[in-house]
């Protein structure tokens, strides 16, 4: 009798344990199914119940161009994640941001209008000179702007420019690295006078506008230059890519790798360090460049000067293009590399 009671109790305990295991398994499966993320997604959306700080990039399915209101220019969209940032290729002759005159025809404003961003100033990440073409990052959210600012400030964004400079480079100048003072970028205003429009850069144009309205003349610009001379120099690495002939004049294709971001840094670097102005650069081409570039054995002075006049508006543009851009995307924690080649029609 006692043995039967013990055996019955043992079977009851085993049965209870099995039932508890079944109940635990059922609850686990139910919880997993309820918390499993949705697998459906729309273009540019994140397939999860919780959005990360930055949406991961989606593949761009087709070429797309953004019209710039008030102009016949368009921006080529090279990359976007539809949520935090967009990278466009800016054509020459277009401001990156609103200038001192309040001009609304600029790249950042056009992108903001296309993507429905109301706060245009919070979309500005960096700038290109008006006559420089190439890749430009625009933030679609304020937190993206803060993060991208940090990437630029810490020099984690890698940029590569292509350019064509007047003349040939000697063997010892085929590649190298040097630094220039940003103050040199102001010489074109100081030397030629503040009432002559010699630059199209938005920042320097704002200085010109101030001079014209306040009538303080060159003395103000000299003060600006003195302050700029105390700032850190802009560092640039470069390498030659070979010769090319433009209207009978030997020119050189080069790659430029800026390690910092100063006003007119690359234009000043070519003119000061290489003693060669960028083809089509109104601000620096004629600043003592003709004498050093004369080919006395073939073209001669008069022929060269004629060619120089023809080339100062080479295809209506300056031959400087921001063609490569690399940065780390916070949403996926991986490097994004974008290329946009340009041969300047040469």
From TrEMBL:
<dbReference type="GO" id="GO:0003723">
    <property type="term" value="F:RNA binding"/>
</dbReference>
<dbReference type="InterPro" id="IPR050188">
    <property type="entry name" value="RluA_PseudoU_synthase"/>
</dbReference>
<dbReference type="GO" id="GO:0000455">
    <property type="term" value="P:enzyme-directed rRNA pseudouridine synthesis"/>
</dbReference>
<dbReference type="InterPro" id="IPR020103">
    <property type="entry name" value="PsdUridine_synth_cat_dom_sf"/>
</dbReference>
<feature type="domain" description="Pseudouridine synthase RsuA/RluA-like">
    <location>
        <begin position="85"/>
        <end position="271"/>
    </location>
</feature>
<protein>
    <recommendedName>
        <fullName>Pseudouridine synthase RsuA/RluA-like domain-containing protein</fullName>
    </recommendedName>
</protein>
<feature type="signal peptide">
    <location>
        <begin position="1"/>
        <end position="25"/>
    </location>
</feature>
<dbReference type="InterPro" id="IPR006145">
    <property type="entry name" value="PsdUridine_synth_RsuA/RluA"/>
</dbReference>
<dbReference type="GO" id="GO:0009982">
    <property type="term" value="F:pseudouridine synthase activity"/>
</dbReference>
<dbReference type="InterPro" id="IPR006224">
    <property type="entry name" value="PsdUridine_synth_RluA-like_CS"/>
</dbReference>
<dbReference type="Pfam" id="PF00849">
    <property type="entry name" value="PseudoU_synth_2"/>
</dbReference>
<keyword id="KW-0732">Signal</keyword>
């Amino acid at each position: 009798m006692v043995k039967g009671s013990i055996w019955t109790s043992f079977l009851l305990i085993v049965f209870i344990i099995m039932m508890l295991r079944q109940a635990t398994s059922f609850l686990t499966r139910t919880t997993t199914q309820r918390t499993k993320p949705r697998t459906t997604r729309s273009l540019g959306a994140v397939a999860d119940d919780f959005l990360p700080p930055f949406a991961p990039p989606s593949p761009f399915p087709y070429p797309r161009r953004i019209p710039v209101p008030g102009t016949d220019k368009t921006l080529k969209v090279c990359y976007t994640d539809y949520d935090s940032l967009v990278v466009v290729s800016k054509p020459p002759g277009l401001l990156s941001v609103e200038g001192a005159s309040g001009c609304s025809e600029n790249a950042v404003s056009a992108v903001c209008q296309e993507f429905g961003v109301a706060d245009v100033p919070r979309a500005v990440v960096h700038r290109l000179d008006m006559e420089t073409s190439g890749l430009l990052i625009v933030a679609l959210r304020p937190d993206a702007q803060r993060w991208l600012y940090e990437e630029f400030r810490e020099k984690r964004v890698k940029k590569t420019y292509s350019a064509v400079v007047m003349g040939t480079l000697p063997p010892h100048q085929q590649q190298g690295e040097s630094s220039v003072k940003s103050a040199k970028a102001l010489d074109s205003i100081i030397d030629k006078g503040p009432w002559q429009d010699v630059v199209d850069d938005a920042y320097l144009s704002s200085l010109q506008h101030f001079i014209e309205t306040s009538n303080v003349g060159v003395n103000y610009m000299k003060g600006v230059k003195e302050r700029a001379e105390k700032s850190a120099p802009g560092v640039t690495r470069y390498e030659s890519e070979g010769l090319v002939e433009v209207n009978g004049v030997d020119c050189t294709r080069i790659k430029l790798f800026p390690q910092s971001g100063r006003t007119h840094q690359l234009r000043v670097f070519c003119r000061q360090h290489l003693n060669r102005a960028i083809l089509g650069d109104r601000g620096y081409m004629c600043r003592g460049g003709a004498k050093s570039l004369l080919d006395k054995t073939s073209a001669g002075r008069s022929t060269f000067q004629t060619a120089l006049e023809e080339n100062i508006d080479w295809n209506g543009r300056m031959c400087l293009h921001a063609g490569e851009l690399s940065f780390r995307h916070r949403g996926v924690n991986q490097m994004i590399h974008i290329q946009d080649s340009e041969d300047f029609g040469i």
